[in-house]
Amino acid sequence: MNEESYYKIMTKSLTDKEKVVSFIKKGDNVLDFGAGTGDISNSVLNLGANYFALDNSEQAFNYLKDKKLNVFKTIDEIVDANIKFDVIYFSSVLHEVFSYSPETRFLDKMIDTLQLLFVDVFSLLKEDGLFIIRDFPKVSTPDNIKLQIKEKHSDDFKKLFLPGFLKNKMISEFKENSLFDEENGLITIQGTSRYIFELLYHFNWGEQSFHRENKEFYGLFNKDDFELFEKSFNCKLLSYDEYFSEDYRHYLEDKFILSENKKEIEWFNNKYFAVLKKES
Q1: Averaged over 238-246, what is the pLDDT?
Q2: CB–CB of 202/156 below 8 Å?
Q3: For position 171, what pLDDT does the model report?
Q4: What are the pLDDT digits (tens) for 62-78?
Q5: pLDDT tens digits for range 55-65
Q6: 3-state class of 220 per DSSP?
Q7: Up-side HSE of residue 63: CA atoms within 13 Å toward CB?
Q8: Looking at residues 207-231, what average pLDDT do you find?
Q9: What are phi and psi of 186, to 5 degrees?
Q10: Could you tell me if 57 and 3 are in contact, meaning their C-beta atoms sit under 8 angstroms apart?
């Protein structure tokens, strides 16, 4: 999938991304980290706040420049510009930063991997500034979960998606004891909630995105992890909200059936919204 197509899909969840606006006031400096197409820019600017974007993708950078927005490619450029922010927003960015980190791809090294990034983020915030993160949560539901792939998608799942998915070293940590069954064209997978969660959202976007999504790991953090951040970084967790984003329902119901003990169950929470405040 090319970047243009990817950005179009991501923009469809704009309503959910807009949650950040309630934390922004007139005159604030707002940094949209990993901005993509700058979906929230109009809402931020309409509040009378100052919108800045950071994205190292050439296509995204040029797109944002064409929209006449303030845009940077690197954190060093922001440091050189001597700008401090009232709000820094990561929307579905943190899991990508971790997934593509050259230092490590092991889940037990998350804090080490993200340490330098978080130090940079908090250094760019004003005193009492907000670091707001919207991303996929680490699920903690029961582990005896069955996922059935609807028949119309079974060939794509088995032939085009699964081989690449199973090469992801981070995901392989949760594959142990999972069961794969195929009968009369129907594919059923049983495993831990974290393994099933990753299957759901890696396959969700369709064939064009398999190559990109299979390099990533989604469910990294929950509220307990963010409370640990308070000790590792000079910040306070003001709020943490975990929920199911309805933007995904149509895609999931088209492809999957989720069950536990032979009973169909509701989808896992698929988003969290965490607000961290820099302490003086």
Answers
A1: 93
A2: no
A3: 76
A4: 999 999 999 999 999 99
A5: 999 999 999 99
A6: coil
A7: 19
A8: 85
A9: -100, 130
A10: yes
Comparing CA positions, the residue from 179, 161, 119, 146 lying closest to residue 258 is 146
Adjacent-strand bridge partners of 71 = 53
Alpha helix stretches (DSSP H) within the chain:
3-11, 14-17, 41-46, 58-66, 75-81, 94-99, 110-124, 154-155, 162-165, 169-172, 193-203, 210-213, 223-232, 249-255
Tally Cβ neighbours within 10 Å of residue 204. Answer: 17
**Which of the 8 DSSP states describes residue 221?**
B
- By DSSP bridging, strand 145-149 and strand 125-135 are unpaired
Average pLDDT, the chain: 87
* The two three-digit tokens of residue 8, written as one number: 């179009």
- Which string of DSSP letters, residue by residue, matches 119-173? HHHHHHEEEEEEEEEEE-B---S-S-EEEEE-GGGHHIIIIIIHHHHTT-HHHHT
In the block, which residue shows the tokens 């393994």?
Answer: 195
- The reported pTM is 0.88
**Beta pairing, strands 70-72 & 50-54:** parallel
149-204 residue pLDDT tens:
999 999 999 999 988 888 887 777 677 778 899 987 789 999 888 889 999 999 98
Alpha carbons 259 and 190: distance in angstroms, whole number = 9
CA 207, distance to chain mean position in Å, is 19
| 24 within 8 A of 275, measured Cβ to Cβ | no
Tokens 């303030």 correspond to: 70
The arrangement of strands across the sheet holding 263-264 comes to 179-183, 186-191, 145-149, 256-260, 263-264
